[in-house]
Design a protein that fits this description.
This protein is an alpha+beta fold and 325 residues long. Helix content is 23%, strand content 31%. A hairpin with a 7-residue loop joins strand 12 and strand 13. Helix 1 runs antiparallel to helix 4. The chain is globular, with a radius of gyration of 25 Å. Keywords: Disulfide bond, Glycoprotein, Golgi apparatus, Lectin, Membrane, Metal-binding, Signal, Transmembrane, Transmembrane helix.
C-alpha cells in the first residue's frame, strides 16, 4: 500500500472519530428565567411574585445578593420557589468571596444546592444537615473538623486539600483560589445523561477549567435550587451576582430513549458504584475530550508504526531479492 493510501486512511479515521465526538456532545441550551437569578433582582426577598426568596442575613443590593456580610456568626441563603423538572440542565454561578481577613483567617465559604428541602437553616454552609439532593461547596477555611477528616482519609500530597477548595458532596473536587480576586469568578455545574460535571473559571481568561466529572449520578426531578453561606469566628462577604440555569436539549439515539423510558423514575439521589468514589482514594478521571484524543493519537501512532514496519520490510525484501542476481 503506498504512503498516500496510509495517510488517507488515517485522515478518514480522524474525521470519523471527530464527527462521532461532535455528535456525542451535540446539545442546545436555553436560558430558563424562572429558575435564574440576575440583576436587577426585581422583587427578590420582598414580593411574593418573585421566583426567589431570601433567608437569614441575606440581603439584596444593586450589585449582588449578599448571603453573608464580612461579620462573625452570620447565616444567609437565597432559594428558588419553583421545583425544577428538567431532565438535563446546566447552572452557571457568578459569585464573589472577599473580605478583610488575611489568608486562613477567613471563612467559611458558600454552597450551591439542588435539594428536596428548601429554606432550612443548619450547620452545612447555612443549610440543614442530612439534606436530600446535591450540594456543591466552595470551601474557604480548613477548620479543625476538616483537618481531622483529612487525617482519617490519609490524603497523599497529590490529593491533599489546599484551601479554598471546590467539591461536590464527598465525591471529589479541586483547589481554587477564589478569595479577593479582581476578576470575575464563576462556577459551572452540568447534569446531563446522568453525568455530573463541575468546572470553574477564576483566572479571568474566560475559559472553563475541569474540577470534577462523575458518571452515574442519579438526581430526581422536582428539587429546588439555592445558595447559602455561613460565618463563624471568621468571616467574609459571600456574594451571588447571578445564578443562570439552562435547559439542555441533548441528542439521544432511539435505543437510549427506549432504555430511559423503561427505567423506573428516580426518587432517591444516588451514584452508581459509590464505594469507588471515596474522595482521595481514586484518581481524577479523564474527560471525554481527553479520552478521545488519547484514543485518536494511539490509533495514529499504531498506523505510523505499521507504515514504518512495511517500509522496513519492503527494503529488506528488496535487498534480499537483489542478492540472488
Amino acid at each position: 500500500m503506498p504512503f498516500k493510501s496510509y495517510w488517507t486512511f488515517a485522515f478518514l479515521i480522524f474525521n470519523a472519530a471527530w464527527c462521532f465526538a461532535e455528535d456525542e456532545h451535540e446539545m442546545e441550551e436555553f436560558l430558563k428565567r424562572e429558575y435564574s437569578l440576575s440583576k436587577p433582582y426585581q422583587g427578590v426577598g420582598s414580593a411574593s411574585s418573585s421566583h426567589w426568596e431570601l433567608m437569614g442575613d441575606a440581603m439584596v443590593t444593586t450589585d449582588q445578593v449578599r448571603l453573608t456580610p464580612d461579620k462573625q456568626s452570620k447565616q444567609g441563603a437565597v432559594w428558588g420557589r419553583l421545583p425544577c423538572h428538567l431532565t438535563d440542565w446546566e447552572m452557571q454561578v457568578h459569585f464573589k468571596i472577599h473580605g478583610q481577613g488575611k489568608k486562613n483567617l477567613n471563612g467559611d465559604g458558600l454552597a450551591i444546592w439542588y435539594t428536596k428541602e428548601r429554606m432550612q437553616k443548619g450547620p452545612v454552609f447555612g443549610n440543614m444537615d442530612n439534606f436530600t439532593g446535591l450540594g456543591v461547596f466552595v470551601d474557604t477555611y480548613p477548620n479543625e473538623e476538616k483537618h481531622l477528616e483529612a487525617q482519617k482519609k490519609r490524603y497523599t500530597p497529590r490529593t491533599q486539600r489546599i484551601f479554598p477548595f471546590v467539591l461536590a458532596m464527598s465525591w471529589g473536587g479541586c483547589n481554587a483560589m477564589v478569595r479577593n480576586l479582581k476578576q470575575d469568578t464563576f462556577l459551572f455545574i452540568r447534569y446531563v445523561r446522568r453525568r455530573l460535571t463541575v468546572m470553574i473559571d477564576i483566572d479571568g481568561q474566560h475559559e472553563w477549567r475541569d474540577c470534577l466529572d462523575i458518571p452515574g449520578v442519579r438526581l430526581p426531578k422536582g428539587y429546588y435550587f439555592g445558595a447559602s453561606s455561613v460565618t463563624g469566628d471568621l468571616s467574609d462577604n459571600h456574594d451571588i451576582i447571578s445564578l443562570k440555569l439552562y435547559q439542555l436539549t441533548v441528542f439521544r439515539s432511539q435505543q437510549e430513549q427506549e432504555e430511559e423510558e423503561e427505567e423506573e423514575e428516580i426518587t432517591i439521589p444516588s451514584v452508581d458504584n459509590f464505594e469507588f468514589l471515596k474522595f482521595g482514594l481514586v484518581d481524577d478521571g479523564m474527560s471525554g475530550i481527553a479520552i478521545f484524543f488519547a484514543v485518536l493519537f494511539s490509533m495514529l501512532g499504531l498506523i505510523f508504526l505499521i507504515v514504518i514496519g512495511l517500509v522496513v520490510y519492503s527494503h529488506w525484501k528488496e535487498n534480499r531479492r537483489k542478492r540472488f542476481y
